[in-house]
Amino acid sequence: MTPANDWYSFSGAWFKTPYTKLEKFRAKNATHSDLRDACENAKKYYKVEGELFALFAATSNTGSNYPILLANNVELYPQY
């Protein structure tokens, strides 16, 4: 979420992995710290405590969760 409690959005492109056809999202300009800050804002807004939190791309608030790759092809994984 943004500091104003709006949904955080960023540009990029959807792609499918060659073998498993798993759909993923490659961020164009978002950095790890941008996404981490958005998660921290969401944790505050929803009053979530603890470290069990993960970053995923979604097409809607009821959609599936898709892995995110940063522009340098680093895939984001939950710590736990």
From TrEMBL:
Q: From what superkingdom does this record's organism come? A: Bacteria
Q: What is this protein called?
A: Uncharacterized protein
- Say which species the protein is native to: Chromobacterium sphagni
